[in-house]
């Protein structure tokens, strides 16, 4: 063989090596993002999840793909959406937006890893065996919307001490609503106050709930379900119209004009879930990852709304707030 032909042969083979190597590389991992909420309800939470993924060096569109499925607050759509993600053979399902999405994901697969965000007790709901050793194919990050009811009710009572009847607005389609009601009832008995339970899972039912509040002459209201965040403008407007002091679960309501919120930093919960998703895609097993528990709590108060309601917020109370909107 002539030297020139030999060099050409070697050069062509060398050029082909990178192509062969790329062909043998594993395909880009795909995450299925399942949410009971609407696509545009709380987009900052989806971004927080992606931020967590980036902390594990996984970037959507670069070395990761995400298939999004939003139920648009229609819980009956979740099973088919979860089944669709399983049919696409995604590498992991992120079940977000409430317990209904977790139930749908869990029912759809026992092999694909599931990472959830949840506002209740995942052991009590049967999602995991224990917090430290979840078992199976599922783990996640939790905040405490249901078990914060007693603390939220105590803060509301502190701010409106003469409130004899306090309404609790819950979404009966949410699996953790029963725990929310139980904790709130225990707290109300301790405070010697009457708790008025109001169910709503549609905008019209929210209107009907406020009609009951007016009829029963409730003195205050609180709510914790994530479903209501998508309806925060409606709820804040109704509370303002009826002049009813209301405690919410997150700062979004207060920024919209609500009186006060107490709860976890939900963005941080989604970020931490994103980190877990990245770790699992890189080889860790869900069964070995303890359920991550939120540790950041915040009180946010809207002084302008308090003034409109004729409430005077004590300085000692304001000093405990993480944020005061004036």
Q: What this model shows, in words?
A:
With 326 residues, the chain is α/β, with parallel strands linked by helices. It folds into 2 domains: 30-144 and 265-297, 3-Layer(aba) Sandwich (Rossmann fold); 149-264 and 298-325, Response regulator (Rossmann fold), CATH 3.40.50.2300. It is built from 12 helices and 13 strands. A 7-stranded mixed sheet has the order 7-6-8-9-10-12-13, with helices on both faces. A 6-stranded parallel sheet has the order 2-1-3-4-5-11, sandwiched between helices. The longest helix has 22 residues, at 3-24. The radius of gyration is 24 Å and the shape is elongated. It starts with a helix and ends with a strand. The relative contact order is 0.14.
Could you give a quick summary of the protein structure above?
With about 325 residues, the chain is α/β, with parallel strands linked by helices.
Structural topology:
Layout (H helix, E strand, L loop, with lengths): L2 H22 L5 E6 L7 H12 L10 E6 L7 H10 L4 E5 L2 H10 L5 E5 L19 E5 L6 H11 L5 E6 L6 H15 L2 E6 L3 H14 L3 E4 L8 H11 L3 E3 L2 H5 L4 E5 L1 H16 L10 E2 L3 E6 H6 L6 H6 L2 E3 L1
Parallel strand pairs: 1-2, 1-3, 3-4, 4-5, 5-11, 6-7, 6-8, 8-9, 9-10, 12-13
Antiparallel strand pairs: 10-12
SS class: alpha/beta
Shape: elongated
Q: So how many helices?
A: 12
Distance between the termini: 86 Å
Query: What is the gyration radius calculated from CA atoms?
Result: 24 Å
Low-confidence stretches: 6-10, 13-17, 19-23
- Tally of distinct domains: 2
- Mean of residue pLDDT values: 89
**Order of strands across the widest beta sheet?**
7-6-8-9-10-12-13
CATH superfamily of the largest domain: Response regulator
Please report which band the strand proportion falls in: under 5%, 5-15%, 15-25%, 25-35%, 35-45% or over 45%: 15-25%
Based on DSSP secondary structure assignment, what is the total number of beta strands?
Answer: 13
Helix-residue proportion:
40-55%
User: Secondary-structure element sequence?
Assistant: HEHEHEHEEHEHEHEHEHEHEEHHE
- Tell me which oligomeric state these chains represent: single chain
CATH architecture annotation of the largest domain: 3-Layer(aba) Sandwich
CATH class of the largest domain: Alpha Beta
């Amino acid at each position: 063989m002539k030297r020139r032909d030999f060099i050409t042969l070697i050069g062509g083979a060398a050029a082909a090596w990178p192509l062969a190597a790329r062909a043998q590389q594993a395909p880009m991992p795909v995450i299925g993002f399942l949410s009971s909420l609407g696509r545009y309800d709380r987009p900052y939470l989806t971004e927080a999840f992606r931020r967590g993924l980036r902390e594990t060096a996984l970037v959507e569109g670069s070395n990761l793909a995400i298939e999004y499925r939003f139920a648009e607050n229609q819980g009956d759509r979740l099973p088919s959406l979860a089944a669709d993600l399983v049919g696409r053979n995604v590498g992991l399902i992120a079940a977000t937006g409430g317990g209904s999405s977790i139930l749908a994901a869990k029912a759809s697969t026992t092999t694909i890893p599931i990472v959830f965000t949840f506002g209740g007790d995942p052991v009590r709901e049967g999602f995991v065996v224990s917090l430290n050793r979840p078992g199976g194919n599922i783990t996640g990050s939790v905040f405490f919307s249901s078990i914060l009811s007693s603390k939220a009710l105590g803060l509301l009572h502190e701010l409106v001490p003469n409130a004899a009847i306090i309404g609790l607005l819950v979404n009966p389609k949410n699996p953790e609503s029963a725990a929310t009601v139980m904790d709130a009832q225990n707290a109300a008995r301790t405070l010697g106050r009457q708790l008025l339970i109001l169910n709503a899972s549609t905008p019209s039912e929210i209107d009907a709930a406020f009609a009951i509040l007016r009829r029963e002459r409730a003195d205050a209201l609180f709510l914790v379900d994530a479903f209501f965040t998508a309806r925060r403008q409606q709820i804040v407007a109704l509370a303002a119209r009826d002049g009813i002091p209301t405690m919410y679960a997150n700062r979004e309501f207060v920024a919209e004009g609500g009186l006060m919120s107490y709860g976890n930093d939900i963005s941080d919960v989604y970020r931490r879930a994103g980190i877990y998703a990245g770790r699992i895609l890189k080889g860790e097993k869900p069964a070995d990852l303890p359920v991550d528990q939120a540790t950041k709590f915040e009180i946010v108060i809207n002084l302008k709304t308090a003034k409109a309601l004729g409430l005077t917020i004590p300085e000692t109370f304001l000093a405990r707030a993480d944020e005061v909107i004036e």
